[in-house]
Amino acid sequence: MSQSHMALPALLGAAEADPLRAALDAVFAAVATYGEDHRILLEEARSAAGGP
Question: How far is residue 16 from each of residues 4, 8, 12, 25, 36, measured CA to CA in Å?
Fold first, then answer.
C-alpha cells in the first residue's frame, strides 16, 4: 500500500459531519499513512490534545 495514496482518506475523513467520526477517520488514515512510524504520530497527537 502506498503511503501517499493513504493520505487522501485522512483529508476526506476530516470532512465528516460528525466531529468524533471525522477525527477518528482522519487519525486512522494518518496512522496508515505513517506506516511503521505511526507511534510518533500518535504521540504528537496525544501531546497536541493535552494528553499525558
Answer: 21, 14, 7, 8, 26
Which run of H or E residues covers position 52?
none
As a whole number of angstroms, the distance between CA 21 and CA 6 comes to: 18
Handedness of CA 6, 11, 17, 18 (dihedral sign): positive
Please state the pTM of the whole predicted model: 0.67
With vertex at residue 46, the alpha carbon angle to CA 19 and CA 51, rounded to the nearest 5 degrees, is 100
**In tens digits, what is the pLDDT along the chain, a chain of 52 residues?**
676 777 777 777 777 889 888 888 888 888 888 888 899 999 998 998 887 7
Cα gap 48→46, rounded to integer Å: 5
